[in-house]
Design brief:
The protein starts with 6 loop residues before the first helix and ends in a 13-residue tail after the last helix. The chain is of the alpha/beta class. The chain has three domains: about 160 residues, Rossmann fold; about 70 residues, Helicase, Ruva Protein, domain 3 (Orthogonal Bundle), CATH 1.10.8; about 100 residues, no CATH class. It has a five-stranded parallel β-sheet. It is built from 18 helices and eleven strands.
């Protein structure tokens, strides 16, 4: 069943339960990525056909000259390359459900042949001389407005009314953002099962995602969570870890140290690297909010302002000095974070992608902590 408790999803789930017990044709409408196949599978799983096959085919992904063979199969020798008899999707779905995704992209010739199947429940393999009956439930789906397609002459009106016995409309994700927490929990569990890494979002991150418009709908959300799960290594995901398109308008990473962090700076221990490791272990958010000089003070063991105040009598190469200093701070941050790039980025007040670019610039890997550059 589709995940969520919004009014729109509750209506969809109620309709799924109502229609599942009947063999009526179902037409699922909605934008790409909204979960139309999830609805089709839920109808099948709740129906009396659940012990028989559920067979899905994307009508828009198969060339028109091959679609007939895919749906109805072909006889040996029916065309060049047909070396053996092949069963089509309707035969494979016998007794079960066939899901015709993107039905709006089907060419007019195939629409006529599908209409006959809907009317008479018979079909012929390509190259066959006899018909065979089929017992399947047909569920179709499309992201197109089929009534507009009928007006343009690209979709048959009689086929539309045959398919559209029970219409189910899936709402876009932007219209049910209240479902985001439940969707994220469900999709994150899938990421954990696949990659062994749980995806945990901070409250501010969830709030940022609820402001996004989600043009790719649930599919886009699933892809984002998988990406974050892979890149962030199981660490709690802050707003600064999100790709820029998902961050709120005008968002800038926090750079001011809070009072609690300032108090910690006033009590720097004799082992600054150990202090930074303590921050890495339990105060990620505070460390991420420290200013760059504050982090430098912890890493170097001396106030950054004093270290940079001395200018050699003969002058210096400022660019080389700053690069050397930056390289050393990155190495120490990685050491403090036990090689975790996302954690080191928080300690340095950087986005993870920015730190990755700097690692490439200096030829460093997450585990390369030998050279301090100081």
């Amino acid at each position: 069943m589709p995940t969520g408790q919004s009014l729109a999803i509750r209506r969809v789930n109620r309709l799924i339960q109502q229609v599942a017990g009947f063999d009526s044709n179902v037409l699922i409408l909605g934008e790409s990525g909204t979960g139309k196949e999830v609805v089709a599978r839920a109808i099948h799983e709740l129906s009396a056909r659940r012990l028989r096959p559920f067979v899905a085919i994307n009508c828009g992904a198969i060339p028109s000259e091959l679609l007939e063979s895919e749906l109805f199969g072909h006889e040996k020798g029916a065309f060049t390359g047909a070396l053996n008899l092949r069963r089509g999707r309707f035969e494979l779905a016998e007794g079960g459900t066939i899901f015709l995704d993107e039905i709006g992209d089907m060419n007019p010739t195939m629409q006529v042949k599908l209409l006959r199947v809907l009317q008479e429940r018979v079909f012929e393999r390509v190259g066959a001389t006899s018909s065979q009956r089929c017992d399947v439930r047909i569920i179709a789906a499309t992201h197109r407005n089929l009534e507009e397609c009928i007006a343009k002459g690209t979709f048959r009106e009689d086929l539309y009314y045959r398919l559209n016995v029970v219409p189910v409309e899936m709402p876009p994700l932007r219209e049910r953002c209240d479902d985001l927490p439940e969707l994220i929990a469900s999709l994150s569990e899938r990421v954990r099962a696949t990659h062994g890494q749980a995806t945990q979002l901070l409250p501010a991150t969830l709030a940022a995602l609820q402001q996004y418009r989600w043009p790719g709908n649930v599919r886009e959300l699933a892809n984002l969570l998988e990406r974050l799960g892979v890149q962030c290594g199981g660490q709690a995901i802050d707003v600064c870890d999100l790709p820029s398109r998902y961050q709120p308008a005008g968002y800038t990473p926090p750079v001011q140290a809070p009072e609690s962090a300032a108090a910690m700076l006033n009590a720097v221990t004799s082992d600054p690297l150990a202090e930074l490791k303590n921050l890495a272990g339990g105060e990620e958010l505070q460390a991420a909010q420290m200013s760059a000089p504050a982090v430098a003070e912890l890493l170097q063991g001396a106030p950054a302002s004093e270290a940079m105040a001395e200018l050699p009598v003969g002058g210096m190469d400022l660019r080389a000095y700053l690069e050397d200093l930056e390289r050393g701070l990155i190495c120490k941050a990685l050491e403090a974070a036990n090689g975790t790039v996302a954690q080191a980025a928080r300690l340095l007040g950087l986005r993870r992608t920015t730190l990755v670019e700097k690692l490439r610039k200096y030829g460093l890997a997450a585990g390369d902590l030998s050279a301090t550059g100081t």
